[in-house]
Amino acid sequence: MTLDPTPSLLENLYWITLLAVIVSSASGVLKAGFKQFDLFGVIIIAIATGLGGGSLRDMLLGRDVFWINDQIFFIASLGSAVTIFVAARLILVSPKYFLVADAAGLATFGVAGTLVSLMVGAPPLIASFMGVMTGTMGGIFRDVLCNETPVVFLSPLYATVSWVGSLLFIGLLHFDQEITVAAIISGLSIFISRLLAMYYKVSLPRFRFKS
Predict the structure, then answer these.
(1) What is the 3-state secondary structure (H, E, C) of 153-191?
(2) Read out DSSP for the chain?
(3) pTM of the predicted model, to two decimals?
(4) How wide is the angle at C-alpha 47 spanned by C-alphas 46 and 48, nearest 5°?
(5) Cα–Cα distance between 195 and 54 in angstroms, integer?
(6) Mind listing the pLDDT tens digit for each residue in 152-177?
C-alpha cells in the first residue's frame, strides 16, 4: 500500500505532526520539571522528546528530517517548552498531566509515523512499526536524558497500544476510509487505550526466570 502525497494528504500530515510535536514536547517539559532542571535543560529535553522519534524515522526512511526541512516544527517544540515552563510557575501542575501529554504524543506521532512510512512505500507491517518507533523513541530519549528507565519498557501497555492503533489506521485505509477520519479513529484509540491501561494497570507479562 503506497499513498500518493496529494496536497490534502500532505496538509493532514502537517497538522498531525505539528500537534504531535507540541504535546510530546510538553510531556518532556513536565518530566524535566519534576527533575528540577533549569530552562536550558527543559528546552533540550522538550526538543529531544518532540523531535527525536520523527528524526530517527526520517533517517531510516531516507527522507529529509522533517524539522530541518521546515523549522516551524522546531519553533513549535521550543514554544511548547517555554510556555509550559512559565505556566508551571503560575498554576499547580499535577504529575498526571505528564501521563496525559505523553499518551497524546504517543497517539499523534503513531499515526503520523505510519502515514509518512506509507507515503514512501514502506510495506504495511514496517509502516506500522515505524509508527510505533515515531511515537515511542522521543519518550525513550527523554527518559534516558532524565536518567530513568524508559517508561515504554515498564509502563502498562505503551508501545503495544501504539502498534495496534497503527495497524488499525492501515486497516481503515485499506478499506478506503477517508484519511482524516481514519487518523482520528486510530489516534483516539491509542490515546484512550493508553489511559485505560494506566488506570486499570493492564500490562504485558514481564520476563522472569523460573525459580
Answers:
(1) HCCCCCHHHHHHHHHHHHHHHHCCCCHHHHHHHHHHHHH
(2) ------HHHHHHHHHHHHHHHHHHHHHHHHHHHHTT--HHHHHHHHHHHHHHHHHHHHHHHTPPPHHHH-THHHHHHHHHHHHHHHHHHHS---THHHHHHHHHHHHHHHHHHHHHHHHTT--HHHHHHHHHHHHHHHHHHHHHHTTS--GGGTSSSSHHHHHHHHHHHHHHHHTT--HHHHHHHHHHHHHHHHHHHHHHT--PPPP----
(3) 0.93
(4) 95
(5) 23
(6) 988 789 999 999 999 999 999 999 99
- Nearest CA to 84 among 134, 140, 48, 34? 34
Alpha carbon 4 to its chain centroid, in Å, reads 23
Spatial contact of 166 and 127, defined as CB atoms under 8 Å apart: yes
Q: What is the pLDDT of residue 207?
A: 86
Is the pLDDT confidence value at 2 over 90? no
Q: Which residues contact 104 (CB under 8 A, 6 or more apart)?
A: 23, 24, 27, 191
pLDDT of residue 7: 87
Average pLDDT, the chain: 93
Q: Interior CA angle at 140 toward 137 and 142, to 5°? A: 110
Q: Are 57 and 130 in contact, with CB atoms under 8 Å apart? A: yes
Q: Terminus-to-terminus CA distance in the chain, angstroms? A: 47
Rounded to whole angstroms, the Cα distance separating 97 from 24 reads 12
